Amino acid sequence: DADVTQTPRNRITKTGKRIMLECSQTKGHDRMYWYRQDPGLGLRLIYYSFDVKDINKGEISDGYSVSRQAQAKFSLSLESAIPNQTALYFCATSGPREGQPQHFGDGTRLSIL
Amino acid sequence: GESVGLHLPTLSVQEGDNSIINCAYSNSASDYFIWYKQESGKGPQFIIDIRSNMDKRQGQRVTVLLNKTVKHLSLQIAATQPGDSAVYFCAERPGGATNKLIFGTGTLLAVQP
Questions:
Q1: Residue A102: its chain B contacts at CB < 8 A?
Q2: Does the beta carbon of A2 lie under 8 angstroms from any beta carbon of chain B?
Q3: Of B97, B95, B83, which Cα lies nearest the Cα of B39?
Q4: Closest CA of chain A from B18, distance in Å
Q5: Integer CA distances (angstroms), A95 to A102, B23, B81, in order
Q6: Cβ separation of A98 and B8 shorter than 8 Å?
């Protein structure tokens, strides 16, 4: 979905480095999410935010932090990257009501050596 | 994508045939369901959704069926085309005051010309 843009698309880095993944959206949605995708597993929620002042942990938040800089921007940080954080990372947005689909960016492929 | 498709069940169909992709969901209280398509190198793309007060919903060439008795969801694709080749996965919303989703692991649809 071109309305949700993730940068970088690919990143290779070393254990212990700090990494930031960025997400911006032009959909005007208040709700934003960060997921990781691993082979053979469904998408797992890391953090989500329902507005600029709202940050919530998902099911696998350990080792990650987020910042909601504006309605349109939601960044994910790995403070000290470790190899088992190697994965595909996706940002998503959704409208304000319950029961609305989430719309995804094209992901960041992160490899930690 | 090449890493998303690993270890997934595969459905192989001939171009022009109809495809049926199945999903068993986990939570009997789930009230909203979504089907996503994920192509190689791309993020999940919304296809169609259905609420729990319905048992069938149709879109363009796609139909979703919901059987709450056995907690089963299916996606039917009519006249399958090569461009339909992708990983398909379902998501359920367990309910509550959030829009959190639980994602399935997916099925790889391979369309043979």
A1: 34, 46, 99, 101
A2: no
A3: B83
A4: 25
A5: 8, 25, 31
A6: no
Question: CB neighbours (10 Å) of residue B109?
Answer: 21
The minimum CA-CA distance between B108 and chain A, rounded to whole Å, is 11
Residue B92: in which H helix or E strand, if any?
A: strand B86-93
Ordered strands of the B19-24 beta sheet? B19-24, B72-77, B62-67, B56-58
Which is it for strands A31-37 and B62-67: parallel, antiparallel or unpaired? unpaired
Cα dist from A51 to A27, A33, A47, A94, B106, whole Å: 14, 11, 13, 11, 30
In this predicted structure, what is the pLDDT of residue B95? Answer: 77
Write down the pLDDT at residue B5. 42
Name the minimum distance, in Å, from the CA of B107 to any CA of chain A: 10
CA distance B90 to B104: 5
Residue B36: the pLDDT is 97
A4 touches chain B (CB under 8 A): yes
In the chain, the amino acid numbered A18 is R
Instruction: Choose among A89, A68, A84: nearest CA to A10.
Output: A89
Contact A107 B42 (CB under 8 A): yes
Position A54 pLDDT exceeds 90: yes
